[in-house]
Amino acid sequence: MSRAFVNEDNAAAQVSPPIERQISTNTNYVTPRGLGQLHDQVARLQAQYSEENALGDDADKQRMAEIERDLRYFNQRLQSAQVVSTTASPDRAQIGSWVAFADEDNVEQRVQLVGEDQADAGSQLINWASPLGKALLGSQVGDEVTWKRPVGDVVIEVVGIEAGD
Asked: d(Cα 12, Cα 66) in Å, to the nearest integer?
């Protein structure tokens, strides 16, 4: 059918449902800071939804559907969140710990093990369930662990552990 025969009012009124955000099957461990970030995200989304809704007929229905989807996701993540203590003994790397490690070339890096929704590699916040997170979780200073990467495994040595904030 030619586009010339489509009723534009009906086409504009149709909102395609956004693809749902996948909920991880991993336990939803979060640091206290991560829990705060989840609460902040829900508050931001609720405010955005209220702003769109206040526009009445001028509201962007597709945007409202996307916000509703994100609200479902983050509310579920809040409900399933299990807060971990970040002040426990720094003898073993745990969620919330800052872990320093060195590769085979003695190049050091420092990362914090955090929950999935808090992860941000650019800020050195690493998901505890990622390959690097799994390699470091439970390790102690002096341990050599294998970081299973898609480009090949690397043996790294844990050189420091600090309690998180």
From this structure: 16
Q: Domain containing 105: what range?
A: 98-162
Question: 103 and 75, same structural domain?
Answer: no
Partners of 135 in beta bridges: none
Which of these three, 83, 118, 149, is where a domain ends?
83
Per-residue pLDDT in tens (0 to 9) along the chain, 165 residues: 555 555 555 555 577 888 988 888 899 999 999 999 999 999 999 999 999 989 888 888 999 999 999 999 999 999 999 999 877 667 899 999 999 999 999 999 999 999 999 999 999 999 999 999 999 999 999 999 999 999 999 999 999 999 886
Position 89 in a domain: no
> Any idea what the CATH number is for the domain that residue 141 is in?
3.10.50.30
Type of residue found at 91: D
Neighbouring C-alpha atoms within 13 Å toward the C-beta of 122: 0
Give the chain's end-to-end CA distance (angstroms, integer). Answer: 61
